[in-house]
Design a protein that fits this description.
279 residues, alpha+beta, Transferase(Phosphotransferase), domain 1, 8 helices
Length: 279
């Protein structure tokens, strides 16, 4: 196939040897299957801000580090330079999160390089060696749903222990690899300790898992892993192997996570309405 212009630079640098096919064209990026020596990998080309639909909401970008005060002022003023820096920061957020999470043992695609707005990373495959499908394209038995839900709740905990909240986790950005679910798409990932919206986002992420897998395993619909996880984290009692029950009772003086959950319910309904309008 014809080499996309944005990938030519990686070929010139010797980072990839050829482009096999396009894997996905989404609102935020295009993904291609490429050859790197003997390895088949994925190349994610981020779309320019003018061609993307995801709103870089202040909720996500709050407390993200910038290189210097000049950059911060330009981003705040919305100058051309500031917009360029904001775009660069948005792209590098996913790269940073992937390196950080892969190092912590979280099930994410392993990153290999990042150049000129193109992320070169592991290609997640199924048992046949083909590109792994997303969860929303699959159906599960009750036993499978319970197993995958348990795996992913554990990955959310591992992410949180590494200081990261996905911020947009759902069946649309989880792949089912040969050895289990793999979490993808992290440009909106937030710092768990430095972003005041992190609790709400964590609860929404876990609630999305509950809803999706609960359609296959109804017993999950009565669980409350999100509030339990955040309460343990906020109290300094959460570790990657901390046992969870799925039950949560608010303690006197604790943050009213029930109110946060109600906000998540409202946000979830708004998201469902948006998806229906978009078809």
């Amino acid at each position: 196939m014809k080499t996309p212009r944005r990938l030519q630079g990686l070929i010139d640098e010797g980072l990839i040897d050829g482009v096999l096919r396009q894997l996905k064209s989404g609102k935020e990026a295009e993904v291609y299957v490429v050859m790197c020596g003997e390895h088949v990998r994925a190349a994610k080309i981020y779309k320019e801000a003018t061609h993307r639909s995801f709103r870089q909401a202040v909720d996500y970008t709050e407390n993200r580090k910038v290189k210097n005060t000049r950059q911060a002022r330009a981003m705040a003023k919305g100058t051309r330079y500031g917009r360029e820096q904001q775009e660069a920061a948005w792209q590098s957020a996913e790269v940073d999160a992937l390196y950080r999470l892969a190092g912590a043992g979280v099930r994410v695609p392993r990153p290999h390089n990042f150049l000129d707005g193109v992320l070169l990373m592991e290609l997640v495959t199924d048992a046949e060696g083909q590109a792994a499908p997303r969860l929303n394209d699959l159906t599960f038995t009750e036993e499978e749903a319970l197993a995958h839900h348990g795996t992913l709740v554990g990955e959310v905990v591992r992410m949180l222990c590494a200081g990261v909240v996905h911020g947009d986790l759902s069946e649309f950005n989880i792949l089912l690899a040969a050895d289990g679910p793999v979490i993808i798409d992290l440009p909106q990932a937030v710092d768990a300790a430095g972003n005041q919206h992190a609790p709400r986002m964590l609860l929404r992420d876990v609630d999305n898992l509950r809803r999706f897998f609960g359609a296959h395993a109804p017993a999950l619909l009565d669980t409350r892993y999100g509030p339990e996880i955040w309460d343990l984290y906020a109290g300094g009692r959460l570790g990657p192997e901390t046992p969870l029950t799925g039950r949560y009772e608010r303690q006197p003086g604790a943050v009213d996570l029930s109110a946060v959950m109600r906000e998540i319910e409202d946000a979830w309904r708004e998201e469902e309405d948006r998806r229906l309008r978009m078809g």
